[in-house]
């Protein structure tokens, strides 16, 4: 499987799974095995995860209002959260560029 290049040294450094686990710009990121500098998922990942959370929030509210059966609406809410987390993980695995973490809070 194709590895993602490190934004610092340009070497193929992260497998898709490792990239997905590297976190977002809001985290410390993961060190590159070649140069040791920290890498994380860039802005595209944040845009994508905010889009999926807005969509799942809409579905959650809609199912809460429209479905009277508590059991069914609970299942839909849990499924929505699980699907959005999975989509974010898949997006980080295959799309978006690695970048340097901006660590706002040290
Ligand atoms: Zn590197």
What does this protein look like?
This protein is α+β, with helices and mostly antiparallel strands and 106 residues long. It contains 3 helices and 5 strands. The radius of gyration is 17 Å and the shape is elongated. Zinc ion is lined by residues 6, 8-9, 11, 13, 32, 34-35, 37.
Short characterization:
The chain has one domain. 51% of the residues lie in helices and 12% in strands.
> What is the averaged pLDDT score?
93
The first-to-last residue Cα distance is 34 Å
- Largest sheet, order of strands side by side? 3-4-5
- How much of the polypeptide forms β-strand, as a percent range? 5-15%
The unreliable regions are: none
Morphology: elongated
Tally of DSSP β-strands? 5
Largest sheet: 3 strands, antiparallel
- State the share of residues found in helices, binned by percent: 40-55%
Number of self-contained structural domains? 1
Query: What small molecules does the structure contain?
Result: zinc ion
Number of helices: 3
What Rg do the Cα atoms give?
A: 17 Å
SS-based class: alpha+beta
């Amino acid at each position: 499987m194709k590895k993602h290049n490190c934004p610092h040294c340009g070497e193929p450094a992260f497998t898709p799974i490792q990239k997905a686990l590297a976190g977002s710009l809001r985290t410390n990121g993961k060190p590159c095995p070649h140069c040791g500098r920290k890498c994380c998922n860039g802005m595209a990942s944040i845009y994508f995860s905010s889009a999926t959370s807005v969509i799942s929030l809409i579905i959650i509210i809609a199912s809460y209002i429209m479905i009277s059966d508590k059991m069914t609406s609970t299942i839909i809410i849990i499924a929505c959260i699980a699907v959005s987390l999975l989509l974010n993980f898949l997006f980080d695995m295959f799309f978006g560029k690695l970048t340097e973490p901006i660590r706002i809070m040290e």
